[in-house]
Amino acid sequence: MTAVKVLIAFYSRNGSTEALAQAIAEGAQAEGAEVRLRRVRDFVAEEVIQSVPGWAANRDRMHAQYEAPTGGDAEWADAIVFGSPTRFGNVSSELKSFVDSLGGLWFQGKLNGKVGSAFCSTSTRHGGNESTNITMFNFMAHLGLIVVPLGYADPAMFRGAGTPYGASSVSGQDNTPPSEDDLEVARYQGRRTAKVARLLSAAE
């Protein structure tokens, strides 16, 4: 049986969203999925990037490690998982720029029926982790994706990590990495997304 194909398209500045993306990839691969991890590119002015400690170094490291997502990746995938840090309770402009680039595929109907899911990270508690994930549901609906939230179908969800809308973590002002519970929720999200995509593919 052909493996389902999962695209994880994310933006990360300090590594928190990246860590969740990697855990989602692990979960999807545990379900037998083929995974593409892609980091969208920064587009703010270089002087802004250089003014924030660690931003340039993290950018350069992640650019070397991950390709940028493309429309070809989205067309290839059976499932697309979008990840973003929270920006004032909303999705980052970097990730949204990738979404906005998918207009041609949307117009051709080539994304209809694919699975979609969302995850995010915030720097403060109640900093918009739920609203950011839900915001991504909006554009997934417009793209024609079948949205897969997490619900409470795994024990990891009852340990106070993540949200029923998607995995998340809180980094604080010291860039604390996701906890093991946060990562376990993300792995569950990868498994769940890949499983739903496989079931939908088998039904076609």
TrEMBL record:
GO terms for cellular component: membrane. Signal peptide: none annotated. It comes from the Bacteria. It comes from Capsulimonas corticalis. One of its GO terms (molecular function) is FMN binding. InterPro entries: Flavodoxin/NO_synth, Flavoprotein-like_sf, Flavoprotein_WrbA-like, FMN_Rdtase-like_dom. Belongs to the WrbA family. SUPFAM superfamilies: Flavoproteins. Transmembrane segments: none annotated. Gene3D superfamilies: 3.40.50.360. Pfam families: FMN_red. This is TrpR-binding protein WrbA.
